[in-house]
């Protein structure tokens, strides 16, 4: 990891990363406790890792990483995203939006607000996505 990414990630934790990472972990625990939410539990914990440490990582469509469609990248993925949105996506997105607005108040907070907006989009429809290192994305292109 580049030293700049490390510094940005440490600052990120202070500027809303810890709170939203815990939010994703709570969503994952709730999903584990329900039968309906079990398919989304693992994704919650993967995205929680991203919410705790986002700089140097990207979210991409899983079909581009795998090279083929699977259940999460097709029509079932759309149904999964609708169910996810109703169960947890909207409140996680609201948390990230509130954090983004708080970060946009200062100049130093702007890159962190942008990260919160990216995570807000991911929280609306995470099915069919995967988290990869930014350096891996350059190699795949």
From TrEMBL:
Could you state one GO cellular component term attached to this entry? Answer: plasma membrane
What keywords sit in the KW lines?
Membrane, Transmembrane, Transmembrane helix
Name the residues that span the membrane: 6-33, 40-56, 76-94
- InterPro entries associated with the record: Inner_membrane_protein (IPR052937), UCP028777 (IPR031308), YccF (IPR005185)
Pfam families documented for this protein:
YccF
User: Taking every annotated instance into account, which residue ranges of this chain make up the domain Inner membrane component?
Assistant: 7-57, 79-129
Transmembrane among the record's keywords? yes
Which PANTHER family does this chain map to?
INNER MEMBRANE PROTEIN YCCF
The name this protein carries in UniProt is: Inner membrane protein YccF
Which species is the source of this protein? Fundidesulfovibrio magnetotacticus
Gene responsible for this protein: yccF
